[in-house]
Amino acid sequence: MRLYVFGSSLTSAYWNGAATYYRGLYKNLHALGYHITFAEPDIYDRQRHRDWPADPPFAHCPVYRSRTELQLHLRRARDADLIIKHSGVGADDEFLEAAVLDAAAAAPAGARPRVAFWDVDAPATLAGLEAQPQHPLRRCLPGYDFVFTYGGGPPVVARYRRLGARACFPIYNGLDPDTHFPTAPDPRFQADLTFLGHRLPDRESRVRHFFFAAAALCPQHRFLLAGEGWSEAEGGAQAALPPNLRRAGFIAPPQHNALNSSARLVLNLNRDSMAQTGFSPPTRIFEAAGAGAAILSDAWPGMNLFFEPGREILLATGPQQVAAHLQGLSPEAAAALGRRARERALAEHSYHHRARRVHALLLCPPRPAPALPAAAEVPALSA
Fold first, then answer.
1. 188-221 pLDDT, tens per residue?
2. Domain 2-174+351-377 has CATH 1.20.970.10
3. In angstroms, rounded to a whole number, what is the distance separating the alpha carbons of residues 21 and 157?
């Protein structure tokens, strides 16, 4: 099956949190026999910060630099079996949401590609759609054969169905064991608690609450903050950092294994909207599990579908609990926690499992959907 994909970037993780998700899914779909073209725009300086080849072994990744070049890709997409428009491309999003449907409709009779909208930030997308009855995507939704989402579970499925989506299926983040695995600790990244995440408006308050405040409560422990945007030049965050907390800046994905393997605990913090919606494990949580790291996460609905609290992952509702876990977790207990998380991820949450789920859905024609999904229609997590 031929897929023609429009997304932010497969080849660069620079200011592109979806890169790990795209790589894991499309690599494993390719292994199932799919031929993939992933067209990405030349924006945000990503092409100068590529951490993957221009054409990885499993996909062709052309870069377009103008609306004219984009139109060329839309014409080529007519020959695909499925056209995918991801949310958050970063350029021409509203144009693309309608244009992929037009491209499919312009295909020769009997050879119309199916079309999917694949949302990598469903809470934000849905908030916009629900607040604006005339939103262009809202008018387009019934035309898509599928809506896939990066997370969100039953609440997101129900909301998309109310807005007219014919079918909506969560395809969660996962583990690529070829990419994320335990490695030797790196002295550059050694810490008692490590957090990796870019500084974003709907994340910063949670980082300050769970991470900065916990560092102030645990002056004897070492805290490591990785990600873009936390330097003085990016808004003065340095002035608020406790002395036992140091910044590591942008860490390229090939170094994530060393980062996760060098911490006694790795902190996962969902963005505000993801935490409120629930059922949204980010890529970082599976990267850390793949490295066999002990994970400490903020608590949100649906966590128990992915990891068992207390046995495979630790949860916290605030800085006091973060501090208590740090003070009470021995290195031996941390190693056992990380080992169990890795075993669970390998058994149920690899990108191979996710790709098989997508493959099974694409083999069946989309069905008409009621306004609200019955419980039995909500897809099982690892089916």
1. 999 999 999 988 888 899 999 999 999 999 999 9
2. no
3. 20
